[in-house]
Records
---
Amino acid sequence: MTPWPDDLADLTPTWLTEAINDGGLCEGIRDAEVTSVEVEPLGAGTAFFGDLARLTVTYSDSSCPAPQRLIAKVPTTDPGGRSVGQMLNAWWREAMFYARLAPLVDAPLAPCVFNGADLDNDRYLLILADLYPDTPGDQVVGATQGQAEAAVEALARFHAPWWGRPRSDEVAWVPGLDRPGTSDALQAAMMASFDRFVSRFGDTLPAEQLDWHRRFIPRLGQWRAGVAERPLTIAHADYRLENMLFSADGTVTVLDWQTAMYTGGPTDLSFFLATNLPIELRRAAETELVGLYVETLHRSGVDPSLTTTVREDYEHAHLWWMGMLGNNLSSIETPDERSAALFDAMLQRLYSAAGDADCGRFV
């Protein structure tokens, strides 16, 4: 089909008609004819790896089954975010998720209308249905108790089908920490970025936890090997409020599958509870929410013998996220007050959670 434009503002009715009918790597919607499209930029300061826009579409036939409100996403134009996204193969992963993994997921997902991937030229475009009036969470404000409970239950239901099971051919493509050597490049990147991270954020973070962060980096391969010995699953690996939509009935739809990977399920739980909950709520509800996660795994068919280390693995994973955020946030710009507040909230909460869990015992 006709190549898509690099700038979402340049999506035209003619091109969108072709895209919806073709579908790219997903199933197309035949006989849809777009007569007009309005493009509204979205996600400033919250979408680290992508530029987003809402598309309001009019069709020649009002009975067309294609959604009238769509969300389009292309790789970010921010140089730091682009560099990190390329290192993580973020856009390829998301294209593969919607092409191969989404049909296997027993959880609410936004329907995919167009999934375009041009691997040779590192160009990608994803168009999903806009689930209005569902609303995204606000990570700067932090999760409410109800949002936290809904997100933890949804996370366990997503993890359960793959928990502790060998990879099948259907998911052989998913990157993962179960493969030796997969942490080598990340370790080098974390080491190279640590001083830059400290220069940028160190004055606001506890010195003791910064030292744990520093000492964890050379132990990354050892941590990876330990994770690989535990029950593994497919994880979201960016499980945060900005990537969730909450409906009036409590349903949680998870977006942004750019970092999907094989790892321990507690790594997702760590990221969500440690960086998305206000510190006092996390302290008050942490034990209950970790218990809810484990109970939901059991209700979803996971053998209790495979969940005995969840709490320890959850706490150990705080160090992984200190390393990952240290690497990623050291390079990504904060062009406005909200993005700066988001970075600050994530780091303050994570370092607090690590301190409360005495994560220094792992290093």
---
Amino acid sequence: MEGNDLQYVQLNDIVKAKRIIAKQTHHTPIISSKTLSKRINGNLYFKSEIFQKTGSFKPRGAVNKLYHLTQEEKDGGVIAFSAGNHAQGLAYAANQLGIKVKVVMPQSAPKSKINATRGYGAEVILHGTSKDLMTKCLELQKKHNLTLVHPFDDPHIIAGQGTVGLEIMEDVTTPDVVIVPIGGGGLISGIATAIKSKIPSVKIVGVEPIGAPTMSQSLQKNSVVQLNQINTIADGLAAPFVGEYNLAHVKKYVDEIVLVTDNEIITALNLILERCKLLTEPAGAAGYAALLFGKISVPKGGNIVCVLSGGNIDNNTLKKVLEADFLA
């Protein structure tokens, strides 16, 4: 990793991370659909991180980050804040290494994600809303002398998530467009760095909910923006801010960011479930929603990859989705 005030993740960092995380994570499958491909006049592929350990891409970055801690840091324990998927990913990774972990989660976090995090051995502290989590986390970090494992704003986390990009390039012959949902920005930072470093011609598109346009606003302001209000069904994309590292990597490598509505996400989720028998969470369906509703221009006959970032949908949310009007 190199840079002056900010460390840009390099392709070599991601290649190293791939070796580090290999035994504790899956190389997830690419799944295609002829029916959905016809809708876009191209070849559509879903990078299915729903089949990753803990049901999302998050263990990739967590395992890589914990590997780089000193023994003293490992012995002292770690702490994080998360809406759910990073909580589970870190708890899983820490459990593998015998490291104690605390996670601060919002009081509105899906019960399924809270229970899973506890199931992996983490201590869960429920506190406020998403915008309150980091303050509480830093307070507990200082009090208990713990090491912070940030969910997205960390070079080792970005490098771990970037392994998704390496796998895409291994499994899809000459991708033309890769579409990635954005919460805090760790996933798209890693994927974009990996792919653009090897195949600069690939178009990388980020997708955010209209109710949580954190990266979009940060790019407009050219600095990290803190959202005062978030309103989206995609809890995995409800980060109230993006990271400094993430904003820098997105500015360097990402071609475009588009916004989708919750109704568009719900429609896309239903269609993926109906046609592909894949159950993703709303955050994971955001990329296909942008494609389905014409938010992204793609080449005719091109190879288009949508990252299904996670499958940890809460039962109550799933019920709402299945009962919603089918819009497409």
---
Amino acid sequence: MELSRKIQKLYTGEALNSLLSTYFRWRRPLNAKKMTEFLNSKGFERIRAKYQDPEDKKGWPKYVEAEERLELAIRQARSLHLDRCTGLGVLDIGSGAGYFLYVCKQLCHAVMGLDLDWPSMYGEMFQILQMPRKVWRIEPFRRLPDLGRRFDLITGFAVCFNSHGSDRVWGPKEWGFFLDDLTKNLLTPGGRIYFELNPEPWGYYTPELADYFRSRGGDVEGKRITFRK
């Protein structure tokens, strides 16, 4: 069984990808603890003391736990192979406290966040991280703002802009308008769109929506949806 698995990895490219991942972890090290220490030197402890809430383990105050969030962001960046290149333009929709973009910045990518103006902690984080952010509410059938540039990678993690958790969760029409807008106005030729969806009572998407994503050439795998222009 073990030999069979090794042969399968050779055929599918898993072995090469694993080797490359190991190489880039060595070649471009990312240390969440050291990043947190840097944030503290820039005033993060003041933000943490202001917004921490030990009673709220699930709401936005959990994002004051910088080292934990940076570890997740590092895994996300490496899974997208952002440690294997430099100089990409990265737009993160629903950018929150900016940890993912901060990791991208350490990898020498040009970053921008897009999110609501609440909670105020998020804006304060972007200030100390010295990263640009556009305040904007995404609504169905409303075009995104002109951000003055295009992006090689557009991401969204734990996506909520699609009315997650409500009775108005987006279907193919809403997603179609949104994806068309991203592709036509914000994505570079050859660029990628990557979203991780939140689960609804029926799963991450209805069968109809999954079929729609695939009809657009999307790679649909669990909560992960990827499109290439």
---
Amino acid sequence: MTTDLPSLPPRDPAGHKGTFGTVSVIGGSAGDPRMIGAPALVARGALRTGAGLAKLVMPAPVLDAGLVVEPSATGRALPTDASGRVVPHEAAAVIDDAADTSECVVVGPGLGGGAEVESLALRVIGREGCPVVIDADAINALARVPDLSRELRARAVFTPHPGEFRRLAESVKVRAPGTDASSRTEAGGELARRLGAIVVLKGAGTVVSDGQRSWTCPTGHACLATAGTGDVLSGVIAGLVAQFVAPPPPAGLPESVRERVPVPPGRPLSLYDAARVAVWAHGRAGELWAERHAPGGLLARELADLIPAALGERR
């Protein structure tokens, strides 16, 4: 076991669904190509991590299909126009409600590349309170936003793969390329500082940074290089945040008072540590699958189903 990572607290034997947090997943596309599986895999990852509830917040024409893929989730429909594109001003109330009733929101998986994605992502990251995992198409959309750090009010975890990292880094003028092993730690740290967020730079030896500290994941396997495994990772991060990261102190308190607000029992993790434990467990689940099967052929849903065993090693 990696000793520099925190252990997870025991699960409350008297807990219920509300005890273990709610994750809302804003994703999916009813356009061409139609994308349904990504948000469902995020929800599966969150539930396999131990989150009490997962909500799929998807375009109305594809929501039912998403719930078929992951029937353990519940659903909220995003209003769309006749072409299936989300209508941002009509979707705003749904997004706000998702954030208000969740302990963590994931935005981006399978959202597509339309202009409306930028509006949805900005709506999510502009809210204080509920932590946000920003993934996939939301990263690409936000890379088009001038002066992104001014728009970012939420406590956030960005989860770029190298291509998404490059686009986002260019947007905020990060110098380190992050495309080779020698520069990944420096690049992840610089991007985290520019954004004031946690950065999870995915790849072999995933790097997690909060801008002051950086950590390289020791677990993982080549079988993880397949579609959907990144969506599972976003769900695992969100599931741990929903369960174990304390909410911020009430707004308006003086800084000296905020620093003395006690951490609620059972919520000992920082956002940085939640991301690190999630990345470790995701890589360990890949190792477990390869030990039992083969070097390749992993399906993302199989990876999600091994997350409980991986996390069991951290208790």
